[in-house]
Here is the input.
Amino acid sequence: MLELYHIALIGAVTAIGFALSRRNARDPREPPIVGPPIPIPVLGHIIGLLRFGIGYFNQLTEKHPHPIFGIDLLVIKVYLVKSPAVLQAIQRVRALTFDPFVTFTTDKLAGIHGPALEALREKESGGGGGNQALLHAMHPTLTGKALDRMNERMVKLLDPLVEELAKRRDEVDLYGWCQHAVTEASTEANYGPLNPYKEKSVEDGFWAFESTISLLIPGVLPWLIGRKAYKGREAAYTGFLKYYAAEGYKDASELTIARHKALAEAGLRVEDIARNEVSMGLGLLSNSVPAAFWIIFDLFRRPELLAEIREEITANAIRIDEETGKHIINIPSIRDNCPLLVSTYQEILRVRSSSSPTRIATSDVLLADKYFIKKGSVISIPSRSIAGGPDVWGANSDDFNPRRFIKTPENTNPRRTGGFMTFGVSPVICPGRHFASSEIIGVVALLALRLEIEPVRGEWWEPKHNSLAIASGMKPVQGQFPVRIREREEVRGVQWDVEATGGSGIFPLMVA
Here is the structure.
């Protein structure tokens, strides 16, 4: 149902759109334009996006047969791709880039404007290239020994969180628990002892910002139309200002140190660096939280698969400390010796993802020698239409197959073009995917070995998705998902821990 702020947002976008829309003649080589399922001229697609978020793109690609087609959003055309061949053509064109989208999010979502925004804007558009330098600075800190150290800090935080959960005898909101646990472990590993997310106002503020973030995109009266997101962002920003004033970054991860150095060298003031770091939470948390929830959800609802994975971890990834008797789950051993768990993890992400990797045309492009894309147009590649389609996986593309990504004599190369797009599409792949995978698999392993989880309703019912949380491509849950927790009888009294020793960082994940 459309709320009042949806109506206000539609009005604002419409006012801009009528002033700017469709002045140029259509080139006959452009991909076909399709109308909205809601038969309302001009506004139909906008209403669809407001109601269903990014998942709306997947709905459209399931309905229309074209390899690539467009929708008109008044001020811009968005082309949706559902063909692996067109996807490959996109990957070969340098003029179809992600960089302008980073600048857009810096402006609309992070709230950075003026000289700081120009310092961060991509050089091809006349800016200082700060965002590009920032991404280059981040990459070395998310591999090798830097990643190992961050993983080691992160997994040490997981066991106390699960230990506390195991003692609960009341109803537990499973999604809320995932949100807090992943937030605490991820941010503590990144920001160090002075982690601003330790303040409840910062954690709550960030999630208020993240969960209604789409209302900030028009940039029209954000403090009114997107009041919850705006106020939440400001609360988190206040926490980060204190963090940088106390120089907390000096005792943080290599990632946080590198980010601060790159932004300072780009000429940003501490106030702008603090704002930028609030938006960093979108990359760090927006997908990891719902992903953790869905892995737990889809694993515990399948008792036979859960039993197999418990056996696999027990046989291949646990060592018992001779002095303390603790059962220690070893993340590198899961990576190397638990192919069913790693494959199941990827299959759940494949099935659940509604991500839609985006590119912007920085010049006119003739794509695949056939489709004319005008400068300024947006191309979006809904993952469900390709990674979940028969063109990639054949007749069983809609089936849940936990062994889909396991190498076998019959399946020597599980990789497919477009077959797994949760972490993006080459050459723009999520740099933090290995950190997120270590964290999520660590949480899932601890829960699977220690606990039984049962929904209060008695069945694993499908919760509603939050369509306003468009920073996430993993269908974040709207509302609570109450469960009951009890310790497994087979392991009652056992003490647990998780470790991530050197070399544990890189998982054998598929990429498109």
Remarks:
- Residues 144-166 form the longest helix (23 residues).
- The mean pLDDT is 89.
